[in-house]
UniProtKB/TrEMBL annotation:
This is NAD(P)/FAD-dependent oxidoreductase. Residues 316-345 are annotated as: Disordered. Residues 17-296 form the FAD/NAD(P)-binding domain. It comes from the Archaea. One of its GO terms (molecular function) is oxidoreductase activity.
Length: 345
């Protein structure tokens, strides 16, 4: 990467990259890994945290042991991107502007970057119910596909009042015969048709709110005490209150959204704005680490096809002449240096 000749609005020199990835989750890091290894100067700007970082254990990722935490998983991925020559910056991107040349200027608390392509991988935050709640990952969960396996033959709750809560509760009957829906005293919002489905399945609906909870020595939930004094034992369960998608930067760039609040993106991650890609949980699809990684990989490959120097087109060859031996390879000095260091390790 290099510094531009001008200065940003904040008065500091901008660092110049071909690709800027916002978000250091599985999708963003996968996109950065591909663009970096495919010879494009890449920066990942990550504020930290995120859903993957909350994982106490890693599930459903082939080749990754269960005992690897989300933070360990992300740190390994971050180290890989760095080892290939990519930069990773801890910061929060507050603004993106596009100049007349089509390049993107990203401003953070301590970062000013200009890039040819932008990858949005900020994901979403789960809406949390009100306390009292067990610890996330030890009785409070948000991903059925990740965690249902651990609740086989266990007593399970599902919190919520909408369609998702009702359907997750019925799906959990594939894993256990003890499933309750906890409305926490709120009115049911699912449809009459869904109500008939719930009534046709062995699911109890508990309307009283939770007064307190008890946990075991290992920190896992053991039971809830409800406001009517009843105590019900649970190993754990799922909170289904919706998602808050981090689409502020996307909409500021003019990216269109789906009805569910996700960013519209094609199979390669391209949004409705040229040069802007969206990957991972900010887009439609299963919110799973391997799925997010695949989306990031596809975006990285697509960006490479757009940015790579060779082969030249016939039009370029006619205008510029044939490619000379001194013109190749088309690798930046920074990536080249990192590749040489990597090969020597």
């Amino acid at each position: 990467m290099s510094e531009t000749d001008g200065e940003s609005a904040g008065g500091t020199d901008e660092q110049e990259y071909e690709v800027a990835v916002i978000g250091g989750g599985p999708a963003g890091l996968s996109a950065a890994l591909y663009t970096t290894r495919l010879s494009h100067d890449t920066v990942v700007i990550d504020r930290g945290g995120g859903r993957a970082a909350m994982m106490l254990d890693t599930h459903n990722v082939i080749g990754v042991p269960e005992e690897i935490s989300g933070n360990e998983f992300l740190q390994t991925a971050t180290d890989q991107v760095k080892s290939y020559g990519g930069d990773v910056i801890r910061d929060f991107v507050e603004e993106i502007e596009r100049d007349d040349d089509g390049r993107f200027h990203l401003s953070g608390n301590n970062t000013d970057v200009v890039a040819d392509r932008v990858v949005l991988g900020m994901g979403f935050s789960d809406e949390r119910p009100e306390p009292p709640l067990p610890r996330t990952g030890k009785g409070l969960h948000y991903c059925l596909h990740c965690d249902a396996y651990m609740f086989i033959d266990e007593s399970v709750y599902v919190m919520g009042t909408g369609e998702a809560a009702a359907h997750v509760a019925m799906i959990m009957l594939n894993f256990t015969d003890e499933v309750d829906i906890l409305t926490r005293g709120d009115e049911i919002e699912w449809s009459d048709e869904t109500q008939k489905l719930v009534e046709g399945h062995p699911v109890d609906v508990i309307h009283e709110d939770i007064e307190s909870l008890s946990k075991g020595e290992d920190g896992w939930l053991e039971s809830f005490t409800f406001e009517d004094g009843t105590v019900r034992e649970y190993r754990g369960g799922f909170a289904m209150y919706g998602a808050d998608y981090n689409t502020g930067l996307a909409t500021s760039l003019g990216c269109e959204l789906n009805d569910d609040g996700t960013v519209i993106a094609d199979d390669h991650g391209q949004t409705t704005v040229d040069g802007v890609y969206a990957v991972g949980d900010i887009t439609q699809g299963h919110n799973q680490v391997p799925v997010a990684m695949g989306k990031g990989a596809r975006a990285g490959l697509s960006i490479h096809k757009e940015l790579r120097t060779f082969p030249k087109s016939l039009e370029e060859l006619e205008a510029e002449g044939p490619v000379g031996e001194t013109d190749v390879p088309g690798v930046s000095p920074d990536i080249r240096e990192a590749a040489e260091a990597f090969a020597d390790d």
